[in-house]
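pasting for ref
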Amino acid sequence: MAMQAHDIEALIRESFPDASITITDLAGDGNHYAAEVIDESFRGKNRVQQQRAVYAALKGKMDGPAGELHALALTTKAPA
């Protein structure tokens, strides 16, 4: 089952309400997305810590073959 970009953004926004979030459907199939999340809470954290926080916000939607979201290319950073 495919996810919509606005659903992905809503899940991320629950954990990062003040973030700048951009979701792009890479293949037009609702399964392959890119997300850029820019949030102050990432300052001082390495990329792995930042991305783990975003994946946690997705609440299991990417877990295993039955996950609703197949692929997410993730870019995270603190604001400039």
